[in-house]
From TrEMBL:
Protein name, UniProt field: Type IV pilus assembly protein PilA
UniProtKB keywords: Membrane, Transmembrane, Transmembrane helix
Domain of life assignment: Bacteria
UniProt keyword Transmembrane present: yes
Transmembrane domains' residue ranges: 20-41
Length: 175
C-alpha cells in the first residue's frame, strides 16, 4: 500500500510539472520581447524615412529628366507646368503637350512614398501667341514631417538637387 501511495505522489508531481509555463516565466519572456520591440521599432521607422527620402530624390530626378524630354519634344511650349502634362496613360492615343506620357501614373498624380511632388513654372515668353516657359522647379515635401521623411527636395532646370532640412520648399543646401 505504501508503494502505491508513493507511486501516486510521484505521478501527481509529474502532472504538475507538465502543466506548462509558470506565470513568472511568461512575464519574463514578455518583458524580453517588449525590450526588443522598444529597440527595434524606432530603427524600423528610421529605415522607412530613409527609404522614402531616397525614393523622393529618385522621383525628383525622374521628373527633372521628364521636363528635359518634354522641352525637347515640345520646344514651342518650353517646360511643362504640371505633373499631369508630363503624365498620361500610355497607349491612350498620341502624346500631346497636355498629356506627354513621359512620367508613370503614380508620379504624375503627385503622391509617392510619403512625399508630395509639384512643379512650379518660372518665367515665360510669348512667341507667335504661344506661351513658352523658360524655367521650372520641382519640389518634393514629406506628407508628414518626421514620420514619412525629414527633408524637402527641389530641382530646377539646371538639374541640381537642393535640400531643405526643415522639410519644406526653401531648398538652399546642395544634395
Amino acid at each position: 500500500m505504501m508503494t502505491t501511495m508513493k507511486t501516486f505522489e510521484v505521478a501527481r508531481r509529474q502532472d504538475r510539472n507538465d502543466d506548462g509555463f509558470t506565470l513568472i516565466e511568461l512575464l519574463i519572456v514578455m518583458s524580453v520581447m517588449l525590450i526588443l520591440m522598444t529597440l527595434g521599432i524606432p530603427q524600423l521607422l528610421k529605415l522607412r524615412k530613409t527609404a522614402n527620402e531616397t525614393s523622393a530624390v529618385a522621383s525628383v530626378k525622374a521628373i527633372g529628366a521628364a521636363e528635359l524630354t518634354y522641352s525637347s519634344a515640345y520646344p514651342a511650349n518650353g517646360f511643362a507646368c504640371t505633373l499631369a502634362a508630363l503624365g498620361g496613360v500610355q497607349g491612350s492615343g498620341a502624346p500631346t503637350p497636355q498629356s506627354a506620357q513621359i512620367l508613370p501614373a503614380d508620379l504624375a498624380a503627385g503622391q509617392k512614398a510619403g512625399y508630395t511632388f509639384a512643379i512650379t513654372c518660372g518665367s515665360k515668353v510669348t512667341v507667335n501667341n504661344q506661351d513658352m516657359y523658360n524655367s521650372f522647379e520641382v519640389t518634393a515635401v514629406p506628407n508628414s514631417i518626421g514620420r514619412s521623411g525629414d527633408k524637402g527636395f527641389c530641382l530646377d532646370e539646371n538639374n541640381i538637387i537642393k535640400v531643405d532640412p526643415a522639410g519644406g520648399t526653401n531648398c538652399v543646401q546642395a544634395q
